[in-house]
Design a protein that fits this description.
The protein is built from 4 helices and 2 strands. The chain has 115 residues and is mainly α. A hairpin with a 2-residue loop joins strand 1 and strand 2 (64-65).
């Protein structure tokens, strides 16, 4: 019985090895699979909005996510955030300049001021 199990194990190992290496049916070992890429990248023609981020899904790699895909998205988001921060700062400085301009008083002058 033990001898039968050893022979069966050897046959299974040989079959798996032939299947992986290529048992004569193909031209060689298994073909290389193309790496999975990000299918729906962020739109390049317009600013990113909340729906783009919510629908973004990274493809899985051997140890998590592909670093290049994640780096590309983080670089794009960082650039857009810096652009928006600069625009907000410009608008805030313009608003502060407009508020600090000459003030016209709508109060009635006191009678003491005319004497």
């Amino acid at each position: 019985m033990f001898f039968f199990l050893v022979v069966a194990l050897a046959v299974v190992v040989a079959a798996v090895t032939l299947a992986v290496v290529g048992g004569g049916e193909g031209t060689g070992p298994l073909p290389e699979a193309a790496p999975e890429r990000l299918h729906d990248p962020l739109p390049p023609q317009r600013p990113v909005d909340r729906a783009d981020i919510d629908s973004l899904r990274f493809p899985l790699a051997a140890r998590g996510y592909r670093m290049s895909d994640v780096d590309d998205v983080l670089n794009r988001l960082g650039a857009e955030l810096a652009e928006r921060d600069a625009r907000i700062a410009d608008l805030e400085s313009a608003l502060a300049g407009a508020q600090a301009g000459p003030r016209v008083s709508m109060d009635k002058p006191d009678e003491e001021d005319h004497r």
